[in-house]
Amino acid sequence: MALEVQIEKKLPDFALEVSFRAEAEPLSILGASGAGKTMLLRCIAGLDRPDRGKIKLNDRVFFDSESHLNIPARQRRVGLLFQNYALFPHRTVAENIGFGLEGLPRDERSKRVSAIIERTHLPGLESRYSRTLSGGEQQRVALARALAIEPEALLLDEPLSALDTHLRSQMEIQLQETFAVYRRPTLLVTHNMEEAYRLGARLLVLSRGKVAASGAKERIFQRPPSVEVARLTGCKNISRARAISDHSVEALDWGCALRLTQPTTQSTSQSTAQPAGFVGIRAHHIEFVEANGASSEENVFPCWLVQSSETPFRVTLFLTMQQHSSQSPQPGAAQLQAEVYKEKWRRFHDKPLPWHVRLPSDSLFWMKE
Amino acid sequence: MDWSPFWISLATSVTATVITLFLGLAAAAWREGRKGAGMALVDGIFILPLVLPPTVVGFLLLLLFGRNGPLRKLLLEFGATIVFSWPATVIAATVVAFPLMYLTARAALEQVEPSLLQAARTLGASEWRVFREVALPLAWPGVLAGTILSFARALGEFGATLMLAGNIPGRTETIPIAIYFAVEANEMTQAFTWCLIDIGISLVLLAGLYYWTHLQSPERLRWARR
């Protein structure tokens, strides 16, 4: 079972040009807002028409520009969960869920509806109207309604973005339960990288209508292939860089030489080294070390605090690696963002500057131009 | 007192409103989601009877259905003449009421959240079912307001009716026409009575309109489900 998509569609600001194959497992589609994610889902569901290309689910062709084939949405049997849930306000929960089962005999239909209500933890809400439901309940009803028609693929458009933090983690668990049972091609669109990582087995990064990365999520997060993907996956520290050797680079924005575990030549298909590129490290990978002559250690540098910003459990430290004159550095001068737990921060926050950071060579990654 | 104008007015307005409801809804549903320069012309034609003086509408209808009119010949095949008969009052009232129904129905249908219609499609519903079970129930308060407005307009129709249907007591004499000819004949009491009756009907209609638009929530509008 697989969903094969290869489409082009002109959008106001850019062209959507996407090609991928989704197996019978959840695939997260990560992208900034306006990257074309929703349009992609709408094309697959049959609500919008691509300019060119082909969409195929299992052995059914939904769309093929060459043979002018465009199966209408109602015949595709693809479940689409709308971002705003799109529940029918004039129908009860049970009637919403049963909407797609009109063709079935009455008792068969109500049997199916109550089975799904049971499965999605909605008993007791059958005769309620969507307006009286909480956000999480509405989301569950919308999911139940999409699943009721036993769709051959499931498309979820930002399923958690309208929920508050507490509900979000609850719904994530329920989505994971659903995915475990459903086992058909499932696309999950999100702009939240953590959601994308937790819910998808694989990952596809979309940037201005193009596939910027796709594959195993662990690999994409560990070694983003480009600056765009690094940013979308939440990397805060990126510096222009020049390769010195296979395992060392000069970080131009940070003004230092770094050793890398990842070879700078490996990611290109050609064996010739590409000297120019970028080097990056995630904020929580930056380590703080004692100062005793540490500067000679690998990838350890003195740094000065520019600014800090606290969340309940963690602190983000904005650091600069160049010593400034006596006046305190301007906020814009920060080059690195480090993220540490508060417990750790309390141990060194009143120590005199400069502090020393280590950029571990196996956490640094190299990106081509 | 001869009550025939009351019954003629009522029968004419009810018939014209029912016809307008279906025609206006069909036109609005057809027009929904269509774009292009041609659509401006279509809108213009549909809305024209609202802005034209009723006498112009009546004159045009007379050309259509009159002695040498194209529609008269067609109707004669079926042995029917329209001009100066009761159906003429219905035609005149329908034509002038149609724009009101069309405009309000379109506004109401445009208000329906598009994702609801799209959700219905992904759930396998045909376009007819999408319209009947999702769009129409949700647009119903607006459609109903349009119906009441159309009824009021049909009830008050004077100019076009007089030109197409004339004033034949007991057959085409509606309340507005009865008032006009009562004043003509200096029968002021008669005219005043009909005015009071007209005001009464209008107040009832307005009260009904208020009730429907303010007290109805989409959840109670469940008639269209089966």
Detailed description of the structure:
- Chain A is α+β, with helices and mostly antiparallel strands and 369 residues long.
- Chain A folds into three domains: 2-222, Rossmann fold; 236-281 and 363-368; 283-358, OB fold (Dihydrolipoamide Acetyltransferase, E2P).
- Chain A has helices spanning 37-45, 93-98, 106-119, 135-148, 165-182, 193-199, 217-222, 227-232, 342-348, and strands spanning 2-10, 15-23, 26-30, 52-57, 60-64, 69-70, 78-81, 153-157, 186-190, 202-207, 210-216, 237-245, 248-251, 256-259, 276-281, 287-289, 300-310, 314-320, 336-341, 355-358, 365-368.
- Chain A has a six-stranded mixed β-sheet with strand order 7-8-9-3-10-11, sandwiched between helices.
- The longest helix of chain A has 18 residues, at 165-182.
- Chain B is an all-alpha fold.
- Chain B has one domain (4-225): MetI-like fold (Orthogonal Bundle), CATH 1.10.3720.10.
- Helices cover 77% and strands 0% of the residues of chain B.
- Chain B is globular and about 65 Å long.
- Chain A binds chain B through residues 45-47, 72-80, 82, 84, 86, 88-91, 95, 99-100, 102-103, 129, 131, 145-146, 149, and chain B through 113, 115-116, 118-126, 129, 133-134, 137-138, 218-219, 221-222, 225.
